[in-house]
Amino acid sequence: MSSIEFVYALSFFVGLAYALVTAVFSGVFAGGEHIDVSGDMGGSVDPSGPIDHGSLHFSPFSPIVIAMFLASFGAAGLICMEIFTILDFRMHLPISMGSGFVISGLMAVLFSKILKSTQSTSAATHSDLIGCSAEVLTPIPAENGLGEIAYNIHEIRYTAPAKSMDNKKIEAHSHVIIKSMVGGTAFVTDKLN
Questions:
Q1: 62's torsion region: left (phi>0), alpha (psi -120 to 50) or beta?
Q2: Mean per-residue pLDDT for 105-112?
Q3: Is the confidence at residue 10, as pLDDT, over 80?
Q4: How far apart are CA 179 and CA 133, in angstroms?
Q5: pLDDT tens per residue, range 124-142
Q6: Which CATH superfamily is domain 126-189 in?
Q7: Mean pLDDT rounded to a whole number for the chain
């Protein structure tokens, strides 16, 4: 095995192994749509503005893109060495590099589009929440006590801290209506009218 063949094989196997390990440990195969929005970073809040549930950004230099570059570079190099046996490595090295950049670039574009589409469909404003029904997860104590509710917006389940507008205790599993949002805290009532 020549040194360049070793480099191609090593690149392929390291890239493939890293992509698989990253996929398994990053939760790609795990389900769930629960997103916790209970954190409140303070500052002024525009009640009619969008709720910041956190934003997702995909870097073209993310580990999965680098892994795809290594795997496709190595695979293309090994294929070129088999097909073009009479050519010097300086001839198939640009083909391998080009394949690595094309495949990893396509992967970066694909992941970026996936994240962008999922992010744009789940944006909600505070006004979208007013009048929305919710379920009490953690009981809301009387007299300005803080509990937790769960509600669905655009078919995605969110949670938020909640206070009773009537200053009375609301038990877990009760259904409430969101009357207002202040920061990240929902003010709810158990009156369903």
A1: beta
A2: 85
A3: yes
A4: 10
A5: 666 778 888 899 999 999 8
A6: Nucleic acid-binding proteins (2.40.50.140)
A7: 77
